[in-house]
Amino acid sequence: MALTSAQSSELETRLDTLGKEVRHQIREAVPQMAGQSFTDLAGTVYDTGDESVASMLEEFSHTLLDRYMRELRQIETARRRLADGEINECIECGDDIGYKRLHVHPVATRCIHCQTRHERTFAGDAAPRL
Fold first, then answer.
1. Which pTM was predicted?
2. 59 pLDDT higher than 70
3. Which residues are CB-contacts of 103 (< 8 A; sequence separation ≥ 6)?
4. Fewest CB within 10 A of the end CB: N or C in the chain?
């Protein structure tokens, strides 16, 4: 079912808001990450425990930044899908995603049935469950 112009406009506004929030989170996180060197985190005289914590904090910072970048890519993909009139089409089965779902999660690319199947198949594993 095609979205109304009001629904499309609302989704565009939601995507704008999400993009601003993610960019704000990046602006908040990057200066902290840039100011933290391994030596600052572990100290100049450190033991293996300090080294472990410092490594974990560095990895966490990189993981967080990766997450923000992935969210920005999802938002841009949703913008393209909206512009092309495809935002409400499931990428797996082609059925309608539904405006209510898109309103709550505007970067959704699957209908609820396909998303449920996807999560059951790939949840927590690098490889699909058989």
1. 0.74
2. yes
3. 7, 10, 11, 14
4. C
